[in-house]
Structures are given as structure tokens and as C-alpha cells.
Amino acid sequence: MRLPILVTLTVSLVLGLAAPLALAQPAAPPAPPAAAGEASYHSPMRLQCEDELRKDKDWYADLKEQLYAKVQKDASTYATTNNRHVLMAYAVFWLLTVGFVVLQWRRQQVLKGEVARLEQELQRALRDEAKGGAS
Amino acid sequence: MKRVIVPLLAALAAAGLAGTLYLTFYVTPLDRVLYFNHKIFYWHVPFAMLLFATVFVCGIASAGYLKKRDPRWDDVALAAGELAVLFGAIVLASGMIWGKAAWGHWWKWELRLTTSLILWLTMVGYILVRRFAGPGSERLAAGLAVFGMANVPLVYFAVKLADALNMVSSHPQAKVVSQLTGSMKATYWLSVLTVALLYTLLLIVRTDAARVDRRLRETRERGLDAGLLET
Fold first, then answer.
1. Which residues in chain A are contacts of B94 at CB distance < 8 A?
2. DSSP B113-129
């Protein structure tokens, strides 16, 4: 009974650690360009906008400043409010430690059962010996 | 003696845990770079310190067993080995979560992380050899534990070694701990004490269980040899 549980736990731990490693692999190569005949939308204003941005430096600078501000504000909000990872880490501490303690408690129960069984067997053996000696 | 020590250690560890949690979440300020994610530091680093300690205990006890062939050394080595697997799993998992929060990636094959993984896998190997290698597995595993102990300085100095080899290392330097001040320093050292108490408690309990298990097996074998017990 214990062997399958131990093997399962070990495999689960290894897979649990290997999953993030798989996620850390380099990104997949970009998808191939759409086949001829497949519709993809390009705004007719795009080239005109890019042309205007090249000509109007102030407009380009304004847009860049607004985008940077927004990106920085989003990153700052995320950094200051994110507590998800702390919860995950503390859950890991508790789950692994409590899991180990529960495993030890179960081991203690098994040992107690074995001690009781051994005591019974010894008493039975001693009684049989005493009967054999008496007869 | 154990009936006094074990409950006392448990009570102290529980008090330390409560105190550390209170200090961590209500007293220590937010880190100016990591903000709330810095709270992981107060457990990740103490568990890492005790991981090194328990690997050393396992290695020294294994060396003692190899030299003296006294099974009591082996009981301690087994207990320390299991705790090394537990603490290593906690350190690796919490480190990955902290890495994701701080650097944006779960894992990088850099020196500190890779050597830590190797150390943990060595201790997992120790437990697997003890469990499955049959007669004489204690001595085989003891050799593995001594090898694991030799790995600990490599893990500890990995960040400095990475600097010396001009390798990129995103793991913080060990000197971060000495730079702590005020409530952060107090919380950190209370956390270290709490984890040390927890470790000592678990080591005593697990060593005791290993000793009882070994004596049961020896008694059963003697009973079988004497013909008193049936298989």
C-alpha cells in the first residue's frame, strides 16, 4: 500500500517541478504567414497615420509619453497590489509541512499497530510454551 | 526527557510561528522594490538555511554510521534525509514562486537554482535508495548523503561563483541578510529561530520513529529465529 503512494508522491513532485521548467522553454516560433486567399484586415488609414506621425514630431512625442505613462501606471499598480504569489508561497509552506506531519502521524499509528501485534504474538507463543512445558 | 522536550519545542515553535506571522504582515514595512512579494523572504531564506543544516546533519550522521556501524547514527541520518527532501521542496517551490513575482519567470538555469535542484535530487535519491535498494541500502545511501553534504558549499557560494565567472545571476547575494535593519531584521531572525525549532522537533520525532521501527524489525527477526513467532 505504501509503495504505490510513495511512487505517486515522488512522480507528482517531479512533474510539479518539471511543469514550470517546460513553461520556461523558449517561445514557439511565430505562426506561418496566412495562406494566399485568406482575408486579413489592414486599416487604410495606417500608412497615412504612420506618415503623419513621422512628419509631426510633437504628436509622436505626446503619444509616446501617454503610452509610457499608462504602461508604467499599469506595472506599478500590479507590483503594489499583487499578493497572489505570497498566498501561493505560504500555501506551499503549509501544505508541505502539514503533509509531512500527517505522514509522520500515520507512520506512528502503523508502528503502534505493529507493536501491539508483536506483543500479542509473543504472549501467545509464551502461553503455548507454558502449556507444552506443563504437559 | 522526551516527554518534556517534544511538547516544549512544539509550544515554542507555535509561539514563534504566531509571532513571525504577526510581525511579517503587521509590522515589517513593504520592500521598495518587491512590495508585498518580499514577505516570501521571511520563510524562503530560513528554510534554505535549515536545508543546508539538515543536509550536513544527514551527511555527518551517515559518515558516523559508515565509520562506527552503529544503527543509531543511521536513524538520525534517515530522519535528516527526509527533512532535507521536505525543506528542499519548500525552498525550491517558494523560490520559483518568488522568482515569478520578482523577475517574471518561474525558473532559469543559473548556478544557484541549478545547484539547489541537484542538491534536492541527491537527497531524493538518498530516500529512494533507502527505500528500494534492499539489504545494505543504508551504506549505499550513506555514501550518497556524504556526497550531498559536499554539495552544500557549492550551492551557498554559487552566487559569488557566478560573479567570478562573469555569469548572469538573478539570485540575490547572501549579504542581503546582513543589510536588514529594524523590524525586518527582528522578523527574519525570529523566523530563523521558529524554523530551527520546528526542524529540531521534527528531527527528534522522526528519529524516534526510525529507532522504534528498527527495533521492531530486529525483535521480530529474533522472535522468528527463536521459533517463537510465525511468519
1. 89, 92-93
2. HHHHHHHHHHHHHHHHH
Chain B residues near any Cβ of chain A (below 8 Å): 34-37, 39-40, 43-44, 47, 82, 86, 89-90, 92-94, 96-98, 100-101, 105-108, 117, 124, 128, 131, 198, 202, 205-206, 209, 212-213, 216, 219-220, 223, 228-230
Distances (CA, A) of B93 to A121, B46, B73, B189: 46, 14, 30, 22
The C-alpha R_g of chain A, in whole angstroms, comes to: 35
CA gap B84, B130 in Å, rounded:
14
Residue contact B98–A89, C-beta within 8 A: yes
Enter the C-alpha cell of residue B4.
Answer: 518534556
Span B39-68, pLDDT tens digits: 888 999 999 999 999 999 999 999 999 999
A33-47, A82-96, B139-153, B175-189: which is most confident: B139-153
Lookup: cell for A5: 503512494
Find the residue in B nearest to A81 (Cα).
B36
Which segment of A68-82, B20-34, B115-129 scores lowest on mean pLDDT?
A: A68-82
CATH code: domain of residue B24: 1.20.120
Res. A120: pLDDT tops 50? yes
Distance of alpha carbon A23 from its chain centroid, rounded? 11
pTM of the model: 0.76
Contacts of A81 in chain B (CB under 8 A): 36
For chain A, which residues make up each domain, given as ranges?
44-82, 84-135
Chain CA centroid to CA B160, Å:
22
Distance from C-alpha of B154 to C-alpha of B119, rounded to nearest angstrom: 10
pLDDT at B129 over 80: yes
- Number of separate domains in chain B: 1
Judge whether B231 lies within some domain.
no
What cell does A111 get? 508502528
How far, in Å, CA of B208 to CA of B212, rounded? 6
CB-nearest to A86 from B40, B212, B230 is: B40
